[in-house]
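Have a close read of the entry that follows and walk me through the local backbone shapes. See right below:
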Amino acid sequence: MENQEEQKEPAESTIRSESQIIEDAINWKPVESSDDYRVENAYAYGGIALLNQATVSKMRSIGKEIVKEIGRRILSGNLNLTTISFPIKCMQANTALHNTVKGLLMCPLYMNKAASIPDHLERFKLVIACSISSYLYTSTFEKPLNPILGETLHGKLEDGGEIWAEQTSHHPPVSHFYIEGPNKSYICHGNYNYTASAGLNSVTITNYGKKYFQFPDGYVVSQNLPIETFSGTFFGAVRHESLGVIEFSDNLSYFKARIEFGADKTLPSDHITGEITDMDRNKICEISGTYCGHIEIDGKRYWDPRYVTPYKISYDIILPSDSEVREDIRTLRLGQVEEAQAAKEALENLQRHDRHLRNANH
């Protein structure tokens, strides 16, 4: 169960073919709107709030169990959560690989639009919109399952684009992904590499990965990733914030963008401020808005969830190593928590055994 339980899904629309989705993307234009819109579950002081009280209670009860287990380490704020095994009853029935590729779910709109035009600046703007617009839909309060080293995932976007992902490192946890648009109209690839630490009432995830957005003519835009903070672990409002600074740049040194989250202290922390500069570092565009409601670049609204809805990702199994094969995921999706916990522990024991064998051979 993810935050989509709180973040309402858009109404089901008429089923469109892959070619229609691409055509609609090519014809898409920024929306006509100028209000400071934020979604219903945006928290007053910033970020996305967890509104489901049953989920809040479950998370906090599990948190108390973890505190009892690991004692002073979590209270000191000097804990790397990637090394701790969490009970499956507080986790979602997906792995970190699923969450990794969901960061590209807006590609069918923005990347197909960008691939259809030669203007590098406009492509650059569309890549920024593609990335930041996904934050609202990838937010989740329940921890994903840790992929096993070598675990894979295969999926498909609604425009026909194919997705591949693999867990390439266990400690530190590193997930690589590769997305190829229809007819190779675009390619997105990169990796997520993070550490997670806990404080008295919060969890902070520091991302070290990068994303790359590539076009057939060789034009490439890259970006880093923000810091993610989950507060209200034991008391107060439970909310998720993206913080820090992210930067975009292209391989031709034409443009750079620097976007800061929460820089304007008079606004909620989910608001963004930034600018695009040219090769001489002259400002050519301003960036504003919030990942909870709208993104404006150069005075034009490139994303607003009232008008631009997220795309679906379908998963299939093409390898025995696929995440969708995992018994703990299958049983958790059926609500069989005890069976899922046993399956999770069996996988963790197998991974410990494999790691021991690798270390013994070094």
Q: What stands out?
A: Residues 20-325 form a domain with the Porin fold (CATH 2.40.160.120). The first strand starts at residue 48 and ends at 49.
